[in-house]
Design a protein that fits this description.
Shape: globular
Distance between the termini: 25 Å
Mean pLDDT: 90
Number of domains: 1
Helix content: 40-55%
Oligomer: single chain
Largest sheet: 5 strands, mixed
Structural class: alpha+beta
Strand order of the largest sheet: 1-2-5-3-4
Number of strands: 5
Strand content: 15-25%
Length: about 130
């Protein structure tokens, strides 16, 4: 994993600004750090299976994934998924994972998210 700033994320994938705002809202004071990695899609296949299994109950999710799949097949660049670094929970991008699988993409861009650690945190636990 390589550290990546919010600005660098937005330069590469401008469409994920809302994702970042939602994610930062889950951290006290919006303090989180981002790390980039390119991962095999298979690492997230269980999430894709679980998400796809809910489509009979949530047809809107199926339509949303179909829209993403169509864009990818039309040549649009994929957006990353955002994953909690400690739990591997996909915070943003579950529909994308299913679409990536439908497009037979072997790898996915992942932004791992974790709480920012301040100097005060380090001193308090030393």
């Amino acid at each position: 994993m390589t550290p990546i700033s919010k600005n660098d994320i937005l330069c590469r994938w401008p469409g994920v600004a809302r994702d970042i705002d939602v994610i930062r809202g889950d951290f006290p004071g919006g303090n989180c750090e981002f790390f980039y990695a390119r991962e095999p899609l298979g690492r997230f296949s269980e999430v894709a299976d679980d998400m796809a299994a809910t489509y009979p109950l949530f047809p809107k999710d199926k339509r949303r994934t179909a829209k993403i799949t169509s864009k990818l097949r039309g040549g649009e660049e994929s957006w990353p998924i955002f994953v909690e670094a400690d739990s591997l929970f996909i915070v943003e991008g579950r529909h994308r994972v299913v679409a990536f699988r439908a497009c037979n993409m072997p790898f996915v861009d992942v932004i791992y998210v974790m709480p920012a650690i301040s100097a005060d945190d380090v001193l308090c636990h030393a």
